[in-house]
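Researcher: Here's a chain I'd like modeled. Treat it as a single chain, no partners, no ligands.
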Amino acid sequence: MKYQNANAILPKELVEELRKYVQVGYLYIPAKEEEHKSWGELSGYRKELAKRNARIIAEYRGGAAVRELAERYHLSTYAIKKIIYQK
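Model: Modeled as a single isolated chain. Structure tokens:
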């Protein structure tokens, strides 16, 4: 999320009205409920984690040890176990 100058994108009258409520600071305007995206949905990171986790599970089922997977993926053994035993 990037910050934008209200003077550059909003009508002067609206900026003046907003100043009645917020003098100086940042104002967060959330997306409409129907336009809201889940975490990682826009960047694709959620899909990348799902692929990584699938590889971890496959390697574990193929005989790789938890400690070995933790070192390979730079995660704790606790995190590897959470991935392997997720429901």
